Amino acid sequence: MSQQEKILEEFRSVFNKLVWLNRGEMEEKLKGHKPSEVHCIEYIGKHVDPNVTRLAEAFYMTRGAISKITKKLLDKKLIESYQGPENKKEIYFRLTPQGREVFDIHENLHRSFRGRDDVVFEKISDEQYKTMSRFLDMYSQHLDAEINKQGIRLEESPIVE
Amino acid sequence: MSQQEKILEEFRSVFNKLVWLNRGEMEEKLKGHKPSEVHCIEYIGKHVDPNVTRLAEAFYMTRGAISKITKKLLDKKLIESYQGPENKKEIYFRLTPQGREVFDIHENLHRSFRGRDDVVFEKISDEQYKTMSRFLDMYSQHLDAEINKQGIRLEESPIVE
DNA sequence: GTTTTTTTGTTGACAAGGAAACAAAAATAT
DNA sequence: ATATTTTTGTTTCCTTGTCAACAAAAAAAC
C-alpha cells in the first residue's frame, strides 16, 4: 500500500470513528430529532435568509430532499417561513423559540466534543498544523482543478439529437 | 473557528471532493453496477471466505442490507456462494469470471485515481508524512479510548424489567 | 445428552434521499 | 413589451438501507 493510500485510509478511519462516536451522544441528547433535521436547524440558525436551495447546496442534497425536511420542521414548529416583499418565489426560514432550543443543545454538544478531543490537538505544534493545512490546501486545489476538467469534458460532449 | 475545527473541516472538504470526483468516473466505467455492489465485489475479491456478516462489519452496514446486495450479485452471476463441509450455517462468496472482470476494472480505476493525484503526494516529504501519520494515529487512539468508555457506559445501564 | 443462548442469513415494513416532472415566479432575450 | 429561459419549491415514484422478527444451525451451559 502506498503512502498515499495509507494516509487516506487513516483519514477515513478517524472520520468514521468520529462520526460514530458523536452520533451516539447526539441521538441521546436530541431524541426525537433526526440528524438531518438538526443539521438543517444548525444551518438555518447560522445564516441569513436561508431557503431550500441554499440548504441543498450546502449539504450536497437535492432540493426535493430538503423540501421534505423543512416541511417536517415546519410541522414541528421548530422553524417558520417568511418571504421578502420584493420576491414572491423564494421562501426563507428562521428558527422559532423551540427551534432555538434545539440549536443551543446542538451547539453545546459540539463544544463538548471539542473539549473531549482537546488533549490531542494540544500536542500539535504550530508548524505541524501548518504542514497539514498546507497539504490539505494543495490537495484541495488539485481536486478543484480536476473537477474543473471533468466539468469541461462533460460540456464538450453534449447530447446530439 | 479553532484550529481543530479548521483542520477537520478541510479534511471533510477534501474527502467530499474526492468522493464526488471519483464517483463520476466510476459510474461511467462501471455502468450497470451500483457503488455498493462494486464495493462488495472488491471485498469478496480480496478476502478469504467472506460471508454476509464479515461484509456487514467491514462496511458498518446491517446484515440485512448486505444480504440484499449479495442476492443481487448472485442473480447477476457476478459472485457465487459455497459452504464448508464442517459448517452448514455460514455461507461464503467468491467471484465468478464475470465478477472478476468488474473487480479488475475497479482496481484499474483506483490505480488511475492514484496516478492522477501523484503530483500532490510527490511534494510531501517523508517528515511531513510522519507528522500527519503521527497525528492521525494519536487521534485514532484517543477516539478508540473514548469509544471504549462509551461501550462500558452502555453496558453499565442495562434494561431492567 | 439435553436445554438454553448465540450466531447467521433472510424477509417485510418502514424511512430517507435521489431523479424527474411539474407549476409559479423571476430573469433574460429579442 | 413580449416571449423564452432559468430559478425555485413541491410532489410522485423508486431505490437503498435500517430495524425487527424469524428460522436454522452452532455454541455454551447445565
How would you explain this protein's 3D organization?
2 copies of one chain form a homodimer. The first copy, chain A, has helices spanning 3-29, 35-46, 52-59, 63-75, 97-122, 126-156, and strands at 79-82, 92-95. The first copy, chain A, has 6 helices and 2 strands, in the order H-H-H-H-E-E-H-H. The first copy, chain A, starts with a helix and ends in a 5-residue tail after the last helix. By secondary structure, chain A is mainly α. In chain A, helix 2 (35-46) packs across helix 5 (97-122) and helix 3 (52-59) packs across helix 4. Helix content of chain A is 73%, strand content 5%. Chains A and B meet through helix 1, helix 5 and helix 6 of A and helix 1, helix 5 and helix 6 of B. The structure holds a DNA duplex (30 and 30 nucleotides).
